[in-house]
Design a protein that fits this description.
Blueprint (H helix, E strand, L loop, with lengths): L1 H25 L2 H21 L8 E7 L4 H11 L4 E6 L3 H9 L5 E5 L3 H7 L7 E3 L4 H29 L26 H35 L13 H30 L8 H22 L8 H16 L11 H8 L2 H15 L7 H32 L26
Parallel strand pairs: 1-2, 1-3
Antiparallel strand pairs: 3-4
Helix pairs in contact: 1-8, 2-7, 2-8, 7-8, 7-9, 7-10, 7-12, 8-9, 8-13, 9-12, 9-13, 12-13
Length: 423
């Protein structure tokens, strides 16, 4: 009977922590900013910044040293590409480079003087291109346009030469190999369709971690003002009930936010969303749970409310690089891959892109799914240790110099009525 009584008491403590933490969150403007406003606004802001998804009409300079009908045809073909617009004709390469240095153009096409002659004699003609590498998105668009132009010219010149020798009836008026690009998971070949599905997962993780640390920093400030006791905490809650109750509270708050960023935002901006939304939400649940425990673990460093901002601002850039969005994870060394494996958002990003953009099922994303459940267990243990340490530290710090420890009201770590922390 005592076992059932203890279980009942623990469940009551858990429900009280859940309800009390929910009230604290809804009455803390800073927590609402990170738990609600940030997930609502950031996906919109990022998507608007990255629209239109592809760059168009990039200005380039032409240096035509040939000045023949063939060179003019080459320029006309280049200007027909959606990504390119002819900005200027320069007399020499030095003038064109000066124009690029001033930011007027992003590429230079230099047509050599022997361009027409080499085409007439059947030799291979070389057309040098000079690209501004300050932004890889522009370089990618220009390089793709020039590659397509090269393939088109090769096809046309091959067809003309074959027709000249009278062999067109033999089916030789085409290239031996025709390439075709299919962008799986990003049919528009757009930057927003590539980056936003991953960014929204990192936003969910980081906003939750930031809010959890903000609340715990505030709780530790109250403890310092009240002799190691947080007057806003639930009385009699054990450390286990405390961290689980808080985690469930934060997860419940974030489930509507997850539905918004994973289902509604892709529909609003026509981003990839071919996966099953129910499976995507089932997949994201361990990410939210792991993120709550991850945030409670990082509260070890949250000595006050303001320290949260320094910690999360520093880690956000690191997490972005470790996620594989800016550099593929397979190209990282073992140490950095291991660091990325410890971040719930990295696994959440990988699995969500599979489901949302490539139409994978939950069973086909089982590796990141299981990895997030493992991290949930790992960070639950670390969060329990951190919370137990904070409660012990608060009681120790509350003892004035020269005062016996027994004179300070306290209770056992698992049953302390007032010394439990608030994340």
């Amino acid at each position: 009977m005592n076992v059932f009584k203890n279980i009942g008491q623990w469940m009551r403590s858990l429900s009280e922590v859940f309800a009390h933490e929910f009230r604290i969150v809804t009455h803390d403007a800073g927590a609402l900013l990170f738990f609600v406003a940030l997930p609502l606004l950031y996906p919109i802001v990022y998507t608007l910044i990255y629209n239109p998804e592809v760059v168009r009409q990039l200005p380039i300079s032409i240096v035509d040293n040939s000045r023949t009908a063939e060179s003019r045809e080459l320029v006309r073909s280049a200007s027909a590409a959606p990504a390119v617009t002819i900005y200027s004709y320069d007399a020499n390469l030095s003038d064109a480079k000066a124009r690029m240095a001033s930011g007027e153009v992003y590429a230079i096409m230099e047509i050599p003087s022997d361009y027409s002659r080499k085409l007439a004699t059947g030799e291979q003609a070389t057309v040098p291109m000079y690209f501004d590498m300050s932004l890889l998105l522009r370089y990618r668009a220009l390089l793709g346009a020039m590659t397509d132009l090269q393939m088109k010219l090769a096809h046309d010149i091959t067809a003309m030469r074959v027709e000249t020798i009278g062999a067109s009836s033999m089916g030789m008026a085409s290239l031996p190999v025709e390439s075709e690009s299919n962008f799986l998971g990003d049919t528009s070949d757009g930057f927003a369709s590539f980056v936003i599905p991953g960014i929204v997962i990192l936003i969910l993780q980081q906003s939750m971690v930031l809010g959890v640390m903000l609340l715990e920093g505030t709780s530790r400030e109250r403890r310092r003002r009240n002799r190691g006791i947080d007057p806003k905490m639930v009385k009699g809650a054990s450390t286990t009930a405390l961290i689980i109750g808080k985690a469930l509270c934060y997860t419940v708050i974030y489930m509507p936010m997850a539905m918004y960023v994973m289902v509604l935002v892709p529909h609003l901006f026509n981003l990839p969303h071919i996966g099953n939304p129910v499976e995507a939400l089932l997949f994201i649940f361990p990410l939210l749970l792991a993120s709550t425990f991850f945030g409670q673990t990082l509260t070890y460093f949250a000595k006050e409310r303001e320290s949260t901002f320094m910690i999360v601002v520093f880690t956000s850039v690191v997490f972005l690089f470790l996620s594989g969005l800016t550099w593929p994870r397979y190209a990282m060394n073992d140490f950095w891959r291991f660091c990325g494996d410890l971040i719930p958002g990295v696994w959440g990003l990988e699995g969500f892109i599979r489901i949302n953009s490539n139409g994978a099922t939950l069973a086909e994303s089982v590796k990141p799914f299981l990895a997030m459940w493992i991290l949930t267990g790992v960070y639950f243990l670390s969060a329990w240790w951190v919370m137990a340490y904070i409660r012990r530290e608060s009681r120790t710090d509350s003892v004035p110099a020269g005062t016996p420890t027994a004179s300070v009201p306290s209770a056992p770590a698992e049953q302390s009525p007032e010394s439990s922390g608030r994340s």
